[in-house]
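Retro notes, item 3 of 5
We never archived the inputs for the magnesium ion complex last cycle. Fixing that now. Sequence and ligand:
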Amino acid sequence: MTGIDRKFAHDYKDAVFVGVGGCGINTISRLRKVGLKGIRTLCISRFEDDLPVNGEDVVNFALLEQKSATIPYRVPVSAEECANAEKRIREVIKGAKKVLLFVGLGGLTGTAIAPIAAVVAKAEGATLGMVITYPFKVEKRRCEAAEKAYPKLQEMADDFILKRNDDLARMFREMPISDAFALRDKEIADMIKAGEIYG
Ligand SMILES: Nc1nc2c(ncn2[C@@H]2O[C@H](COP(=O)(O)OP(=O)(O)OP(=O)(O)O)[C@@H](O)[C@H]2O)c(=O)[nH]1
Ligand SMILES: [Mg+2]
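Structure as it came back at the time:
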């Protein structure tokens, strides 16, 4: 195991990180860059070409077989995709004592799959933490979808943090948005390492 201090490795021995949708997976990818590796990880995306995280500790699952360019934008996640995701999530988190779920709300993929992951985690008896990202206010439709999805999701969490992308606005006036995202995810990594997000 590399890149993790001992206390962290001990605390997260029986944990699984689950990243759903673009934001969830990006966050996991950035956590790994700052050393949060070696924890069983599941990344779920719509398409295989949106799964950038690789490692022995990572299971990648694409809901569809097509490439991302081959289906029109905003086709809802189907019941079959949800059922397949549920099965895969159950397989990967089996026996986990803790599940930490990462999702950016408002898009199609993460918003559909996060509640499924939450239900499975609770059914498996795991403690469930969530890192939830709210879209920018300018993403109006996504904000509406996020507001609708948030209460039910948060209700299932034993612990959660909510990060609003609008709070990054001050930062990215001074830097590229990718740097602001990375700084935010470094904060999340530090919170996880310090045991400030459940466990
Ligand atoms: N902080 C942060 N926010 C992100 C990142 N990527 C996306 N977001 C935010 O998360 C929201 C949801 O986007 P995605 O995670 O791409 O949505 P998705 O679940 O992949 O759903 P679809 O793209 O519709 O399939 C966006 O509206 C952005 O506001 C990221 O890397 N960091
Ligand atoms: Mg996306």
